Amino acid sequence: MTSAGIGGEYPSALPCEIAIVGKSNVGKSSLINRLANNQKLAKTSASPGKTRLVNFFLLNKAFYLVDLPGYGFAKASKAEQKSWGELLERYLSSGRVKHLLMLIDIRHTPTQDDLQMFRYLIYYGIPYTLIATKSDKIAKSKRRQEANKRAKELGAPPFAIPFSSETGEGRAELLDRIGQIYLDCMNTKKDLPEE
Length: 195
Ligand SMILES: Nc1nc2c(ncn2[C@@H]2O[C@H](COP(=O)(O)OP(=O)(O)OP(=O)(O)O)[C@@H](O)[C@H]2O)c(=O)[nH]1
Ligand SMILES: [Mg+2]
Description:
- This protein is of the alpha/beta class.
- The protein has a single domain, classed as P-loop containing nucleotide triphosphate hydrolases (Rossmann fold).
- Helix content is 35%, strand content 18%.
- It has a seven-stranded mixed sheet, with helices on both faces.
- The structure holds guanosine-5'-triphosphate and magnesium ion.
- Magnesium ion (MG) is lined by residues 28-29, 50-51, 67.
């Protein structure tokens, strides 16, 4: 794993880099651990504001999955919020990210910060996949419906993958999706002229 703070250097880019965005405590780091089936890979915490750097995880020796600090952590000081915002902005505008996994809590209507994040990624035309986290917290029969409802509330086409880092629900579906994203990255790379 490679980490970068404000002004820190990123590792050399690979053709495929997928990053995870979402509000603080939504389960970004836990999702990485569940995907990799390694609880110790990314640091997680019950209190928001755990991830404070841009952390690059090399998966399958093939692509980067990037853990980012969450937004909207009201208890952080103004200075901290500003520095996390800058970290996020610098990373997202670096042109490295090929696809964003945007995480929203399956139980709650998206916040103003979520709406802002979503507008930002649409504005910059960054491809994305919506994931509704903590699906284990609601009844199984409601999960698909609630996940899709959250997507619709964001202003997106009504589809989000219900996901639980606790039970592993949605892991296979998300891995499939990541496989497709990876192939897209490799195909796009082929289409580019040689440097
Ligand atoms: N029940 C349940 N709890 C979860 C799930 N995913 C994460 N959590 C819990 O939610 C809390 C926050 O998880 P993190 O993965 O650290 O969240 P984060 O989005 O990385 O947070 P920041 O780094 O602060 O932005 C932890 O207590 C996790 O155990 C889930 O799918 N189900
Ligand atoms: Mg985190």
